[in-house]
Amino acid sequence: MPICYADRVFAALIAMILYTLTAADLSPARAQPLEARQSAKAEFQAWLRQTVWPDAQQQGVSRQTFDRATASVALDWTLPELQPPGQKMVPDDQRQAEFQSPERYFAQDQLAALAKTGTSLLTQWAAPLAEIERRSGVPREIIVAIWGRESHFGRVVPRHQALRVLATQAFMGRRSALYYPELLAALVILEQDHLPGETLQSSWAGAMGQPQLLPSKFLRYAVDGDGDGRRDIWRSVPDTLASIANYLREHGWDRDQGWGSEVRVPANISCTLEGPRQGRAVQEWERLGLTRVDGASLPVDCRDAGVFLLMPAGRLGPAFLVSANFYVLKQYNESDVYALFIGHLADRLRGGSALTGAWAPIATMKRGEIRSMQERLRVQGYDVGKVDGLVGFATRTAVGQWQGKNHRPETCFPDAALIQTLR
Questions:
Q1: At residue 254, what are phi and psi to the nearest 5 degrees?
Q2: Is the separation of the CB atoms in 224 and 242 below 8 Å?
Q3: Helix H segments across 194-236?
Q4: Is 322 helix (H, G, I), strand (E, B) or coil?
Q5: Which of 354, 353, 395 is nearest to 376 (CA)?
Q6: What is the torsional sign of CA 108, 237, 146, 76?
Q7: Domain residue extents for the chain
Q8: How distant, in Å, are the alpha carbons of 32, 116, 229 from that of 157?
Q9: Which residues of the chain, if any, have pLDDT below 70?
Q10: pLDDT averaged over the chain?
Q11: What pLDDT is recorded for position 69?
Q12: pTM for the model
């Protein structure tokens, strides 16, 4: 029987997410000789006994829980960003992946598939969603959009054991300082929630369950949504939905505001006005000539609060006015395009249409090249935010300011020529 279009879209999405969740071939540590692995194994077991156990005990983890959880935990040599004992780390500038155009985040096939499935699930889970929305103030479409983005509504099951991932990264990962508290938090989960260790399925980065929460986030924000006394974000849909909503509520979601809307920005308005540091009243943006893409007035639900210009590709893509709720979405994932994807997908779940603004072609750039550009701009006195090889709002603004100062068209987005100039 031939595969229908929707099935092809779903299969492609599953393949993409599985790649993201596994990343099995990204680590040079896989090539470690047997002798080095045996030495690391011995050091790892000693580290569990001498370092992890005392700290876990201070967190309230019992000896019985600790022994049961760590009895079969072994190093996972397939994970990325490992630095085995005695191995020289590859410099960051040689490890940087490519920076992709923001447009690639908004594949229409993917959005259409998520919107179709999400619309059906809004009906299926209408009763618990209504109660969750009433308690939290977070719209059900936002909750379902995050559920869809993180795990395709629970259909993509992470295949890693969280304890193994976290222990490996805490022991010999590049970001061990980040992962060590997460390992302790996972042990606390086993102690408090009485879950078997194998239940804690995660991505290769340690994010767990259908909402993809790190263990520390689970402890702070996961809630029991179905009343069975457990916070089961792996198998329970109500627990998953309630936990997502609680996360956003605890980070300040305002029930009286939307997230934002697509707008038209007149050519005489500088793109350097973008970002969360430059909020203005709606009336002020209107005086500058901004309108919604359909020509309608700007959103009335934000008229008493500051709103912010968002241009994720500078002048090379669509523009938006966003509320403080947009930055609450960024607390779930700090990427501008992630938060925009969630807001836009939620609009699609309400029957909204595709984005109107066109994306201009943007050449693929190495993150190492962008990092070098950021460093040069910083030396020249521009605020680029974090020097990380990503084009965030501060970097976009700095690029636009540099372009204006050097009598170049303000696009607020780097290109190969600008990167070459700033070498």
A1: -100, 115
A2: yes
A3: 215-221
A4: strand
A5: 395
A6: negative
A7: 1-84+165-206, 260-322, 365-421
A8: 29, 20, 23
A9: 1-33, 86-97, 300-304
A10: 89
A11: 94
A12: 0.88
